[in-house]
Predict the structure of Branched-chain-amino-acid aminotransferase.
Amino acid sequence: MGFDEMDVDTIWMDGEFVDWDDAQIHVLTHGLHYGSGIFEGARCYDTAEGPAIFRWEEHLERFFQSAKPYEMEIEFTAAELTEATLELIRRQDLASCYIRPIAFYGYESLGVSPGDCPTKTAIAAWPWGTYLGEDALENGIDVMVSSWRKHASSQIPTNAKTTGLYVNSMLAGEEARRNGYAEAIVLNKEGDVAEGPGENLFLVRDGEIYTPGLSESILDGITRDTVITLAEDLGYTVHDNVSISRGELNTADELFFTGSAAEVTPIRKVDNVVVGDGSRGPVTEEIQSTFFEVVERETDEYDEWFQYV
């Protein structure tokens, strides 16, 4: 569904609520030319207590942390961005939605150095269903290992959610889709598993759970952290600082992606090699079920993870 088909009409930009179609920037904006922006992606869920943003504080903390390597000064406090986001959701009467805060160097000059370019900040929110499709949550997806490698942390900060870095994700994802797959898996420069284009990856073997460590050039995903917490609370042993070879993808009992957009999505094939028995495995299913019980507030546990609208 395109934006024009959605019932959304407002965006918050630099302290003001503006009409959706008036949320414009200049064609010579620094961030457009050099990818000098940072962003977040969070979900607001429809719960019995009303709309609730999942782990908003953690998303905002990462937002401000992402700005630091680029010496980007965001002129609004976390409290101001929170109030703007809550009001944006209220104004559009959104029961559930995806939230996209973004900050970027704006229009002033066009040297590679941002110089005196101002930092522009905006927040949008719109209804967005399951990222990889409703069927994917139950039946899983087919993925391929991309020929594109993930950039290393020695080249560019991999713990910052930077707009320009997602060209790498776009190339990997589109390569997969051209070849008939739903998504890609990207390897790091050493040839070990890093992550998906917009997701972290988990592997299940002999009832234990493994996920690449932060040293593997991955983003420190908030849903990744959530799943680690939930899995440990369910009694699973989680190894969250390991290297996973490409070959281990083919011998895993289960594989699944996590992310704010992808939530918890099983993987049924890698490069046409069937994972496990080719369906959502029992460990993935239990973690996925628990995740949705939490975000839809069917349990009173983990209430501290929610910002109610």
Summary: The helical segments are 30-34, 56-67, 78-91, 134-139, 166-178, 222-233, 246-251, 282-295.
